[in-house]
């Protein structure tokens, strides 16, 4: 992207990785993480806090790039499982905003992609927008 923003769909995988690494470190024989004792807990806490500020949106700042619905957020529900069931429902409710008659775009004002897209639309994927 051409702007600086925190994207929930980028923070979620980081949180999932921290949780998976903590789980790995909890297994027998894996007692020494290559970091300070509180680093993983601190990362998990900070990532959860930042996600809590952004979700169920994808981005909230800068305001001109606010994205309240983004298909990439579905991965936070499954397979990453880093959101609560309630938050997952809020995310999926918002995804109705990016659903079309026969397809789903990533976010509003993005173009759809489909089989034979280049033959139907052309080589420039930015020339056909949905809203």
Layout of helices and strands, plus pairs?
Layout: H1 8-25, H2 39-54, H3 74-77, H4 85-94, H5 117-120
Helix pairs in contact: 1-2
Q: Summed up, what is this model?
A:
The chain has helices at residues 8-25, 39-54, 74-77, 85-94, 117-120.
Characterization of the model:
The chain has 131 residues and is mostly helical. The protein is 40% helix and 0% strand. The protein has helices at 8-25, 39-54, 74-77, 85-94, 117-120. Helix 1 packs antiparallel against helix 2. The longest helix is centred in the N-terminal third of the chain and has 18 residues, at 8-25.
Q: How far apart, in Å, are the first and last alpha carbons?
A: 20 Å
Gyration radius from CA atoms, angstroms: 18 Å
Number of helices: 5
The structure class reads mainly alpha
Features:
single chain, 131 residues, mainly alpha, 40% helix, 0% strand, elongated
């Amino acid at each position: 992207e051409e702007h600086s923003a925190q994207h929930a769909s980028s923070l979620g995988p980081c949180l999932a990785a921290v949780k998976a690494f903590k789980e790995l470190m909890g297994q027998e024989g894996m007692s020494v993480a290559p970091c300070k004792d509180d680093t993983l807990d601190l990362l998990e806490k900070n990532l959860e806090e930042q996600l809590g500020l952004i979700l169920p949106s994808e981005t909230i700042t800068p305001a001109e790039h606010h994205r309240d619905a983004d298909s990439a957020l579905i991965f936070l529900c499954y397979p990453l499982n880093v959101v609560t069931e309630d938050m997952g429902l809020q995310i999926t409710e918002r995804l109705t905003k990016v659903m079309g008659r026969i397809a789903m775009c990533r976010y509003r004002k993005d173009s759809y992609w489909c089989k034979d897209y280049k033959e139907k639309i052309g080589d420039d994927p930015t020339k056909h927008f949905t809203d």
